[in-house]
Design a protein that fits this description.
The chain is of the alpha/beta class. The longest helix is centred in the C-terminal third of the chain and has 18 residues. It is globular and about 45 Å long.
Length: 193
């Protein structure tokens, strides 16, 4: 049964964080709990490009991927409130971060290195992790990106265990954020209401 919160979701909920933090897994479940649509930015980029992220990186380069990522997220943020899982680098782009701040509620799913290593090792689909030792790469990204992810509206620790454990934390944090902040709808902001 959809929660009463579904009726009150004024903006899209945007999940940010590093690879393996659980953004897609938790995002899909959160959307279902809220009774809204779920979008996965990486999947939409692949659909728009007609090839995998790995291929985009190999054939067109990372800069082209980042460009597509920025455009896809801007398009999704203009849609009615939904849950959006972003790729790990999206929130690092200042323009994308500003759009998310204006039109969404950002949630940083924070996870520790061991958990992200374990989760990312299950699939071989992340080009950045093929550039060297995944542990060192993830540690470098933690050092570079965590201060930026910390600018998200809400921070939730992604825990090792059944996704419902993290989902419950995300849901509670979102509910409490909405109760304590007067969040206007992105559509009202756009129309100057
Ligand atoms: C990236 C994270 C990936 C994907 C791409 C680049 C990054 O998404 O967008 O491989 O820069 O951290 P996930 O965080 O969903 O794995």
């Amino acid at each position: 049964m959809p929660s009463s919160l579904a009726l009150e979701l004024p903006r899209s909920v945007v999940l940010v964080g590093l690879m393996g933090a659980g953004k897609s897994c938790i995002g899909r479940r959160l959307a279902s709990r809220l009774g809204v649509e779920f979008h996965d930015a990486d999947a939409e980029i692949e659909q728009a490009a007609g090839c995998s992220i790995q291929d985009i990186f190999e054939v067109h380069g990372e800069a082209a991927f980042r460009d597509g990522e920025k455009r896809v997220i801007a398009r999704l943020l203009a849609q009615p409130p939904h849950v959006l899982a972003t790729g790990g680098g999206a929130f690092i782009d200042p323009e994308t971060r500003a759009s998310i701040a204006k039109r969404g509620i950002s949630i940083w799913l924070r996870a520790d290195l061991g958990l992200m290593l374990q989760r990312t090792a299950r699939r071989n689909n992340r080009p950045l992790l093929k550039r060297g030792d995944p542990r060192q790469i993830l540690q470098r990204l933690i050092d570079e990106r965590y201060p930026v992810y910390a600018q998200a509206d809400i921070t939730v620790d992604s825990v090792d265990g059944p996704p419902d454990l993290t989902l419950a934390r995300v849901f509670a944090a979102l509910e409490s954020y909405l109760k304590s902040h007067a969040v206007t709808s992105a559509a009202a902001d756009r129309d100057g209401a």
